[in-house]
From TrEMBL:
The keyword DNA damage appears for this protein: yes
CDD domains in alphabetical order: HATPase_MutL-MLH-PMS-like, MutL_Trans
Positions of the DNA mismatch repair protein S5 domain: 234-351
GO biological process: mismatch repair
Pfam family membership, one: DNA_mis_repair
Name recorded for this polypeptide: (apollo) hypothetical protein
PROSITE patterns: DNA_MISMATCH_REPAIR_1 (PS00058)
Species lineage: Eukaryota, Metazoa, Ecdysozoa, Arthropoda, Hexapoda
Length: 482
């Protein structure tokens, strides 16, 4: 090939998937002997883009979304190894663009404001290189649908008429038949099917206005109707969002964070229920997962993970989505700002849900009233009432905790001395009533420790609640230590 010859390339245009855009790209000074044949190039590209059947589903469904589809149907067999079919009702592909859609292009190296999921145009040629594929489509406004087939990267015959009312129908058979060594790296049929389910769930969450159906053999795995809000779709995907959801809404410097999280009592042992999206693109980013974990670190154990579905809308020139072959990772221009927005948004949502109080200095005369209000009002509301807005932990106060609230809230508590308090405390239902000798020994130990309060900021520990909160006393103040 002579130097400087322009190469025809294709990317996803404004009107949907597969629309052709011709981009002139000059070939650098490379001798003919160094230029690999098209089939080899496609196989190399396929090795990066198509790792497993789920990769095929992801690329084809993203193209269907770009095409403006409102209904997408996916069918698989043997975990996607034998057959993958994706049908949509989108804009379709023009007859003259069907062959162009299977050409490799250089759009992945262009600096663009990427608004579409399938921006690189590598999916179809990569899939065609390692499988038998048939693309049938009817473009919007066209009178006929046309079909074209490829096998191992080679075109099989010419364009033929096809019966299709609207949109695009793609069949991918015998995945990796052209590269049999790849087959040994596939997991079990069940594992590959689950990977496809996860991909569809991720894409369905953020594209809640689209209906999705996933079928494996004769078994329907997923069925999502078109929804009007992210919350409704989340309740379809994860039932635990229903009744446990907190809304997240934060914005700064043109960056907007929206989504829903679950209260801390709903958590799991893996981070797979943390769903993150950037400009409508499902991603897995350690920065975002770390921000979510930081926001929850005061509410759940360190080895547990919350449920969260968060969508970041970022100006396209502030995020690079072309950093991973599968487009599953991104690079943020301002990592610190993104981290702060996510943590602040989640902490605000959790604070509203829990009803946390503003911090009051220890010297403020309102401290005692605030603590009494917390013990008398917040705790009793949280555990005794069924109102969803006040419920946090799903349990009732124990007899000891009820007695504790009464003791602390008593208006005459200051007038009682320590001995009288110990003698009048009601241990009924908690433990066996102590003898007079035991009370005297306990009283003596307590009085000895009271002298140490002056030199201990957190005072003298009275008790522990829920195996989490230590209740301590300093003079006329009460301190709760998490």
């Amino acid at each position: 090939m002579p130097k400087g010859v322009p190469v025809a390339t294709m990317s996803i245009g404004e009107n949907g998937a597969y629309n052709a855009v011709i981009t002139a790209v000059s070939i650098l000074s490379i001798s003919n002997s160094e230029i690999a044949d098209t089939k080899t190039i496609n196989l190399i590209a396929a090795g990066e883009v198509i790792e497993r059947p789920a990769s095929v589903v992801k690329e084809l469904v993203e193209n269907a979304i770009d095409a403006g589809s409102l209904e997408i149907e996916i069918k698989i067999e043997s975990g996607g190894r034998n057959l993958i079919i994706v049908t949509d009702d989108g804009n379709g592909v023009e007859k003259n663009d069907l062959e162009l859609a299977f050409m490799h292009h250089a759009t992945s190296k262009l600096h663009l404001k990427i608004k579409h999921l399938g921006f690189r145009g590598e999916a179809l040629p990569s899939i065609a290189a390692v499988s038998r594929i048939k693309l049938s489509s009817k473009a919007s406004g066209a009178s006929e649908a046309w079909s074209i087939s490829y096998e191992g990267g080679e075109k099989m015959g010419e364009l033929t008429l096809y019966s299709l009312s609207q949109g695009t129908h793609i069949e991918v058979r015998d995945l990796f038949f052209a590269t049999p060594n790849r087959l040994k790296f596939l997991k079990t049929e069940r594992a590959e099917t689950q990977s496809i389910v996860d991909i569809v769930n991720n894409l369905a969450m953020v594209n809640y206005h689209i209906g999705f159906t996933l079928t494996s053999g004769n078994k329907k795995l997923l069925k999502y109707a078109k929804q009007t809000s992210l919350f409704r779709r989340l309740c379809e995907v994860e039932e635990e969002f229903q009744g446990n959801s907190l809304e997240v809404n934060e914005e700064e410097d043109g960056i907007k964070l929206t989504g829903h999280i679950c209260r801390p009592t709903v958590n799991r042992g893996k981070y797979t229920q943390i769903y993150t999206f950037v400009n409508g693109r499902p991603i897995k980013d350690n920065l975002l997962i770390g921000a979510v974990r930081y926001a929850y670190h005061d509410f759940i154990p360190s080895n547990r993970y919350p449920f969260a579905a968060l969508h970041l809308e970022i100006p396209y020139d502030q995020v690079d989505v072309n950093v991973h072959p599968n487009k599953s990772e991104v690079r943020f221009q301002n990592k610190k700002l993104i981290y702060e927005i996510v943590t602040r948004g989640l902490i605000n949502a959790l604070s509203r849900r829990i009803g946390t109080f503003d911090v009051i200095p220890a010297s403020d005369h309102k401290t005692t009233n605030t603590i009494e209000g917390f013990l008398k009002g917040s705790l009793s509301d949280s555990f005794d009432k069924s109102d969803v807005q006040n419920e946090f932990y799903e349990r009732r106060l124990s007899p000891f905790e009820n007695q504790l609230i009464k003791e602390f809230a008593s208006q005459n508590e200051k007038a009682k001395d320590l001995s009288e308090q110990l003698k009048s405390f009601d241990y009924t239902g908690i433990q066996k009533s102590p003898s007079q000798a035991e009370i005297m020994v306990l009283e003596k130990k307590v009085l000895e420790q009271v002298d140490l309060i002056e030199s201990h900021t957190l005072g003298f520990a009275r008790c522990q609640v829920f195996n989490t909160y230590n209740i301590t006393a300093v003079r006329d103040k009460l301190i709760i230590v998490d």
